[in-house]
Amino acid sequence: NKGNYEHYMQKEIHEQPESLTTTMRGRLIRGGSCKAKSVLLGGLKDHLKTIRRSRRIVFIGCGTSYNAALAARPILEELSGVPVTMEIASDLLDRQGPIYREDTAVFVSQSGETADTLHALEYALENGALCVGITNTVGSAIARNTHCGVHINAGCEIGVASTKAYTSQIVVMAMVALAIGDDTISSQARRESIIDGLFDLPNKVREVLKLDQEMKDLAKLLIAEQSLLMFGRGYNYATALEGALKVKEVALMHSEGILAGEMKHGPLALVDENLPIVVIATQDACFSKQQSVIQQLHARKGRLIVMCSKGKASSVCPSGSCRVIEVPQVEDCLQPVVNIVPLQLLAYHLTVLRGYNVDQPRNLAKSVTTE
Ligand code: UD1
Ligand code: BG6
């Protein structure tokens, strides 16, 4: 049922304040006079000790689910102190990469049925790792075959391009990081501010959804482009990859997410006055580095669209010559949840304006059950 919306993708983008609320329901503890704020993940609580003791945490997934894990990686590393590595499921299988008994392997999948991810799970089980699932589908193959896990509870997602599952996956993995780090006194203040940020996150997403018309106007400007680059780094490297994936899979426009730190190692050669470039430069520890990336792109007359924190337009675009998308600022590790929303809206409007099928992109399937 699409309700008042024209497409499922549109409905699913707009229902993110509610889906995020459902994802967090019953899992955030407000704390009190003598009790700290904390998270409670029923499916993980008996396994946290083993995860903390593991030698490595390996995230495994495909497509949007991989990107969600990439967005959560920095906070998991920070709060757990355990090295976190990333694997695209098919690539792990192609290489038969090493997985050990001392590893925690985390399988991220909206459907819980993706063939590559499921085969990687079988492989990790054979190698004796603790296998954890993060999935939206109760009773799915990945939920059944992992040792433990967390359901993201985002509600049924119908649009082939994943939107609300992406934001809920990031929130669940941030909660996993909080739960693993729960025994560390030195990070308690940091954890509590992230928990406060989680409580307020649905409101911030509601606020960023007001950019709908602005994103439609931007889509009108970009409708006939051949290509669109997206630069991000740190917490928002994943945002660049995921924003580009949305544009390419639904709007059928070439788009590439680029790690801003790699700019001089190739991508800079593409920059001219024609190619549109989105730069994600919201407030965090990488901000000044992104400011310098913007200056360098600007010096080469790049056509810039800069995403920055509210009120910061003049510090990312002093000359006023770029287009700016201002988003509400949240806790750094939660910022990817807010930042992806305008890019989802942009991909949606580009698709409609270009006349393509929004909910069933050419050649793609919601759940890829063959390798
Ligand atoms: C569970 C109930 C929820 C109830 C809540 C009350 C289910 C599915 N969930 O939620 O309805 O409101 O208790 O306390 O009945 N699991 C995996 N792999 C996965 C995902 C989950 O093994 O990929 C396992 C978990 O380890 C857990 C079980 O499935 O044993 C349920 O997980 P989850 O729904 O996340 O647990 P709760 O949030 O506690
Ligand atoms: C397919 C979908 O390629 O599978 C993507 O079209 C999705 O949207 C990917 O990200 C992985 O799916 P899942 O269900 O494992 O998260």
Automatic annotation (TrEMBL):
This is glutamine--fructose-6-phosphate transaminase (isomerizing). Pathway: Nucleotide-sugar biosynthesis; UDP-N-acetyl-alpha-D-glucosamine biosynthesis; alpha-D-glucosamine 6-phosphate from D-fructose 6-phosphate: step 1/1. It catalyses: D-fructose 6-phosphate + L-glutamine = D-glucosamine 6-phosphate + L-glutamate. The chain holds residues 322 to 692 of 692 of the full protein. Its EC number is 2.6.1.16. Keywords: Aminotransferase, Glutamine amidotransferase, Repeat, Transferase. Residues 47-186, 218-361 form the SIS domain. It is an enzyme of class 2 (transferase). One of its GO terms (molecular function) is glutamine-fructose-6-phosphate transaminase (isomerizing) activity. Coiled coil: none annotated. One of its GO terms (biological process) is UDP-N-acetylglucosamine metabolic process.
